[in-house]
Amino acid sequence: MASTNQSAASGGRRKYTRYTKAHLTHRNIRFWLVYLVLIALIVFGLMKVHAYFAEKLVEYEDSYYTHVAEEVFKTFSEKRFDELFRYEDMSGFALEGEKEYVAYLEKAVGGKDIDYTEIAPKKANEKRFLVTVDDKSFAEFTLKRVVDPEKSTQDATVYKDYTFFVIPITNSYPWGHELYEFDTIYINSKNPLLYDYYIPSYAEISVNGIKLNDEAETYDTGEDEKFFFDGHLPKGVDGFTLKHYSFECALGDPVVSVTDAEGAVLPLNDLGEGVYRFEYAYSDDELKDEFEAKALEFLKNWCLYSSHNTKKANVTDLCIAGSRALSFINNYESYWITKADKQSFANQRSWNYTMIDDQVLCCDVSCNYITVTKGKTNDYDMHLRLYLYRDKGAWKVYDFEMVTDSSNS
To answer: Could you tell me the pTM of the whole model?
Structure first.
């Protein structure tokens, strides 16, 4: 009996053991499956959360106003001066354009250090930045809040913001910032300087390729100056005046060209502070040899005539009939002085030869006319400016004037 019970007990344990192992094996498999699935879900969820936050954080960072400011600053740091020209106020400086502006900034900025920093805004919903060149103020640029046109009304302006949610499913814990976009650039690199050019009325002046003659109402001051020959030219001979052109340029030294009708560059005197004046070009080398003898002949005969030491005809024969010179000589009798007993000439010279309108020759002649009258010696410093005109193939005096200003000698 006891043996039977033991057998039964032994058999029972073996049956329970077999069930327990199978059951545990099944439970273990199910556990690991559930565990692996749970781990996979957690990993998948973490990946989704990471992807969501990575994307949003990148968007968050990229939409931050400092990146917008950095993009605007590249216009300066990359020296895109042609783009900056669009923001420069060039009103009143019609003689300078983009070409001159770019060249000016390339020279002014060149390889210098360009930087920027945020400064206090002047108005609400604005970000303001100062651009410096070698730590010196150069320009400013601003950013403005982005407006939501769909939500804005006539009475209220609604701005756009960048926002994402820390818990997106429930849209909880919003996180973000204000959105900004480029507004404008304030730049004033100009250095306005006034230029004054005094040039002959026949000349052509251009500044940076723009002819001022065509824009006379803007740049011609109307303050014409007359030359020494004014009032001494015969009818039909065109003289000229000295015209005054005044203009401002703000982008460094302008390219100015002053030429005559043949395109030859006219000489100008640089008087400083932006003032340039025509330098009258005399032609002594070309004309003196041809005309000096005739000029000195008239001077000597005039001196002799003035002291009653030669006939009037010796002077008038050197003049054109009906001319101003002849009229002056015929009316000179009241100025006659006592006839000289002796006379001589010293320091004879001539200079400042010039041909006016290719028709009138002008020159200066001078000498010391030394006379002895009743034992008294007189030394007269004679200086005449002669105007000769071709009459019947011969050059004769049309007009002359006595020059007393020693600065002309």
So the answer is: 0.72
